[in-house]
Fold each of these.
Amino acid sequence: MVRHKTKNICEFGDFQTPMTLALEATNVLNRLSIAPRSVLEPTCGRGAFLLASCKVFSQATRYVGVDISTKHLSYLKEKIEVESSSFPIKIINGNFFNLNWSEILNTLAEPLLIIGNPPWVTSSELSILKSSNLPQKSNFQGRSGYDALTGKSNFDISEWMLIKYLEWLEERNGIIAVLCKTAIARKILIHAWQHKHRIIRAQIYKIDTLKNFNASVDACFFVLQIGDGNLSQECEIFEHLSAERTSQIIGYKDNILFSNIINYKRWFHLRGTDSVYIWRSGLKHDCSNVMELEREGDKFCNGYGYVSSLEQDWIYPLLKSSDIGNSRTSACRKYVIVTQRYIGEDTTRLKFDAPKIWMYLQNYQEYLSKRSSSIYRNRPEFSIFGVGEYTFAPWKVAISGFYKNLNFVQVGQIDGKPVVFDDTVYFLSCRSESEASFITALLNSQPAQEFLESMIFWSDKRPITIELLKRLNLRALAQVLGREGEYNSYVLRNC
Ligand SMILES: C[S@@+](CC[C@H](N)C(=O)[O-])C[C@H]1O[C@@H](n2cnc3c(N)ncnc32)[C@H](O)[C@@H]1O
């Protein structure tokens, strides 16, 4: 969000929808011949969608609006009195997370339209605000273990609410029509298809958030029609609310969401895991001011400006996402201390093998021990992650997870030492330059690019993930390109 937000706005994800947008979105439903018998706006705020629904769906017999904010609801009640007093509207002041929803839902006739704009806030933003505006279950969607520890268990409150809407409609006929982040809409689609919710039709209409909310977010009006009938595993994408033709169709197959189902089907045979070439993430240390250094003559300067003489054997050239994304691979701006050769290795040996580094790390022990991620708990002092034999391979083929292009680059040694990446870079390790060129050529070939791109959503914060890369079988790709012999010869040399 670009605009300045008060604590209250943040905590309750409180971005009220302008009436013009609510009307435009509600009219989309009208165009789709949606005619609900009841309308529910679960976090209605000032009720833009409830009031728009009265105008557009005048045949409905009941309209219910719920919100936690008494201030918003007083405003809404005044509005209703002036504009919509003849409509059967019920306003409820309550907290989404502890309301008796089945009691409310039982009063609502089908088809039921659940409309609105659920709060725009994530669980981690709420924890920073020390807010309790959260569902009671903290282990949302069973995300636990490493994901929970590394913060992947962070979720949007709207995602949680939308899953509840799906549950409410499990045995009812209805429509979910909400403004939400496009990434959330996609997560909900995956959830709905995985859990076999009865989706008859799914649509995403892009909206201009800068114009409507003075915020720069990739968001949409997300429409799910749920009920009995022919079920669909595709979602139509429209460039704006008044677009009549789809610009793209995304789909779900083999537990994967596709951005281009045609290309996925075309290159389906490239799918599978490669047991020889294994994708890895770069080094994770969570303490860049201490662990990342710039060279000053034969010494190193850390992020606090402190210059030290350190054992070079434990310091490696570091390339970051921006270096890989911009193909800057022949020289490095930074170096990194690599304290272990494999995860969990005892670090006390540094005391004897690299006493200057050991002293240096002791001096910054306070910073290193304060690293918040619990992956470091009960681990040797100064532990790092994303380290193994592969870290020290002389050649690598790498890609940045953050950059919006599928450009694989080959990376050789710098100053005679293997290059280490940060943890937003993914890579395959290779033994020789020719092997790295071969793998790079395979990955940058048209079939590989079309296959991978068919599963990429470029508007995602990190469009390229290790899970995506792992779906491509390099052997099958080499076969398609008529280079299986070369592939086999490199595999034999690696065994
Ligand atoms: C993004 S605003 C949207 C309001 C309205 N639906 C609209 O379209 O203008 C989110 C609303 O969620 C409400 N809200 C936040 N947390 C809530 C909770 N736990 N229970 C009920 N309402 C909540 C806020 O007060 C706010 O009005």
Amino acid sequence: MPKDLREFLADYERENPREFCRIKKEVDPKYEVAAILTKLEAARKLPILFYEKVKGSDFPVVANVYSTKKKIAASIGIDPEEFREKYLAAMENQVPPRIVTDGPVMDETIGADDVDLTALPMMTYHEADAAPYITAGIVLAQDESGGCNASFNRLMYKDGNRLGIFMTVGKHLHEIYSRSEDQGRPLPISISLGNHPAWALGALYIGAYGDNELGIIGGLLGSPVEVIDGNLKGALFPAHAEIVLEGTIEPHLREEEGPFCEFSGYATGKGLRPVVTVKAMHLRKNPIYQDICGGQHREHLVMATIPMEANLYKTIKGAVPTLVDVHVPAPFSVIVSIKKRFAGQAQSAIIAAFSAEMYLKHVIVVDEDIDITNLQEVLWAVATRAQADRDIVVIPGARGSSLDPSAAAEGVVTKMGIDATAKPSLASFPRRSRVPREVMERINLEAYLNLSSL
Ligand SMILES: Cc1cc2nc3c(=O)[nH]c(=O)nc-3n(C[C@H](O)[C@H](O)[C@H](O)COP(=O)(O)O)c2cc1C
Ligand SMILES: [Mn+2]
């Protein structure tokens, strides 16, 4: 198993040269990197992109590291079908982090007076984006019990050593910050770029406040992650990252942040949001800057569903033991299949799903005969097994995503569950059209017609 991002990249390039693309021609971090990725996606190409020369910066940039499940799976030595099992096992068998005093990221350190964020190739992706952004930074912050929280948070370049930060209300980093702000204290954080991909799966973990995501990353890797306790007490940072920024989120300070085009496919409006002061920058020798293209791109969508589906599976299984599968096909939406034994179990699945993930807005529950990755079949089940007056649960005024542009107030949404299971049961429902199996097996098309001429 690779021990850090650069080892993973070297392994992947060697083993999958067609999925690793080195770009030697200079690219502009303003729009051009996003344009290349957007055009490649339209052509259904998702290679890791390694930009060797980025205008205005000495650092090469890597993007699309998480663009397929295959890549992320390779980084932790599993097949893509094993994610569910592996993630649940990592949640059960967490490996606590090891605090070390040194590591590769300490090759070079730049102190507060000399930090100039413009040295980093921060990106502007879309027309509506207010400024260059850092998107692939993993923020670590300690809660009052000393546990370490990890999350991705977009960071807007402001000036010199200052960044605007977007923290969703109700997520853990926002809660840690609010508690520290209540005490009038700045919150020490670290922002790391260029981690082993397991860090991304940990940062996207959705669990209870106080859960230590470093233990889950250790569980995924099968060994403790090494973190350094830096100058700012409370801000641990990964010893093997490419780049680390240490800083504080200031209490009672709000400045304009945004707009920024988000994974929802829309630009979120500007708002008054907290500010990070960067107090030190640590770098490996020849650091690689990692980028995740802002907006609705494969990388963001694919990666986020892995921990989300594992968490939904675990929580819904607790309520409905005959849960079959869960699938997150689009932002804020999940499709759940169950083997319904008793009336009311679809409703139990809906309630459990909403309790597991605050961002969820729509839950569709179907029977076990439906392929939940086939949206046409799911809509067929909704059309033929549900009646709106009987089978829809509506929860108005609930906490949801602040990135939902249809919400009446930011982050306050109406949630909907659809029970698209057959009533009263699949066994008693009209039978699906099916040619007898024995005949299907017996009939050989080639005996009746020339298949290749059609
Ligand atoms: C590339 C990327 C960028 C993200 N940016 C943000 C962000 O700006 N603000 C935010 O609240 N969540 C963001 N997220 C989602 C959070 O990282 C995610 O909800 C995480 O589980 C929150 O963890 P926490 O509740 O432990 O703080 C982003 C996710 C990804 C993959
Ligand atoms: Mn957390």
